[in-house]
Amino acid sequence: MDLKRYRVNNIQEALQLIKKDLGPEAVIVSTRQVKEGKGTFGLFGKTVLEVTAALDQEQKSAPAKTPPPTQAAAAVAYGIKDQETQPSSNVVPFRSTSTKDSQSLILPIQKDVQELKESIDEIKIKTATYGDHVINQLKHELGEMRHMLHMIVSQSVHHDDLHLPENLMILFQQMKFGGLEEKFARRVVLEAQKNISEEDLQNFSYVKIFLARMLMKIIKTTNGIENIEQSQKIVSLIGPTGVGKTTTAAKICSEQILQYKRKVALITVDTMRIAAVEQLRAYAKVINVPLSIVSDKVELDRAISSYADYDVIVIDTGGCSQRDETQMFELRDIFDERGRLHNILVLSATTKDSDTNEITRKFGSMPLDSIVFTKLDESSSYGSIFNHAIRFKKPVSYLTTGQNVPEDIELATKERLVDLLLHISGS
Ligand SMILES: Nc1nc2c(ncn2[C@@H]2O[C@H](COP(=O)(O)OP(=O)(O)OP(=O)(O)O)[C@@H](O)[C@H]2O)c(=O)[nH]1
Ligand SMILES: [Mg+2]
After folding, report:
1. pLDDT averaged over the chain?
2. What's the confidence (pLDDT) of residue 106?
């Protein structure tokens, strides 16, 4: 067995040298990367490839003999036979022996195995350190959870004026954690306590369904824009910036076309921002509806008149900060109209209650016919929808649940809204 070791820059280089030195029947028995050079402990040396190749003496003397399958496969895999001959300048003398002793073949493999073991040990040490880090993180999070639990328990202790049977107390807590304001949650459970018998109060499902029915009476919905009685439905989407007015306008248009086969037109009063107009133009093209761009009430009236033979007109507006008096004045000038226009206030389910209240109060200076809650997919607490419904008594028309047009919109139904708070379908 002839065995040679080479230090080369790449495998192609090795193949050329092996072919030149040992011939086309040689096989590669091992490869590994090693540091070469003057750096301390070889740390800063260049990394080169160390390739060990072997040629069986019998093969050398009888070149026509087919190598064993594995060697043949290796030879093909490394393409030794296909390489051009090059001068063997990078040969590292190893051991050239003609003995049949297979030790010479085993030795480099043993060395490789040893190195592999060392690498694994190194990885084990690193993993152990990483494990510690993860465990510490988990411990920290566990500590935080314990703290939160403590807060929850101590909060419930503050309800010592609230003497509720266990099932009602659980549902009271659930509604509160779902974002329903405490005073509303209290009112609901106390009313339920008065109306449910002692026996039924022991039945959790019964109590839950009872509360669901109560909440369904509180919240109002419009069945999308089907509540609009006029033969031509004209809806305008108004609201603060970035809540999803334009996306929702496109979704409503699609719903009207696909589900009701109605003739739909789009109008935008967002003339200031080129990008916003382009966004709506792109939607109009995809949905295949005409689009008019208007800047004031006169132009809006003209555009509406031009769509006299359309079943539905959807009007998109530019985002308006409730604190910007000038913007609010301009919007009011156009949409402060009862009867003909159905104004939909678009609110994001991710906006905190206090902001939603302020927004609704400011936009409420115009007639608001319904509310759309967007971005339900980005929220985990839906009690604010009920807080809003209880506080402002405005019906909800649609819910949107993602960015996809037209898919991510649904009619707001009482069942769905109550389910968001009480998780009835999941129980
Ligand atoms: N996750 C999620 N994103 C939404 C939803 N509705 C709209 N968006 C995204 O919210 C962003 C703003 O949506 P727009 O429709 O442009 O909002 P807008 O109210 O018209 O914004 P302005 O005209 O700038 O005031 C976009 O990235 C939308 O894809 C929804 O239901 N869920
Ligand atoms: Mg917009």
Report:
1. 80
2. 56
Between the CA of 307 and the centroid of ligand 1 the distance, in Å, is 26
Q: Report how many helices (DSSP H) and strands (DSSP E) the chain contains, helices first.
A: 15, 12
401 touches ligand 1 (CB under 6 Å): yes
* Number of residues assigned to the chain: 427
**Among 11-15, 35-39, 421-425, where is mean pLDDT lowest?**
35-39
Q: Which atom of ligand 1 is nearest to the CA of 408?
A: 31
- Tell whether ligand 1 has an atom less than 6 A from the beta carbon of residue 403: yes
Sheet containing 409-411: give its strands across.
291-293, 264-268, 312-316, 233-238, 342-348, 370-374, 396-400, 409-411
Burial class of 226 by CB neighbour count within 10 A (0 to 12, 13 to 18, 19+) = exposed
User: Which of 236, 241, 243, 247 most suits a substitution to test ligand 1, by most atoms within 8 Å of the C-beta?
Assistant: 247
Q: What is the mean pLDDT of residues 221-239?
A: 95
Quote the pTM value: 0.66
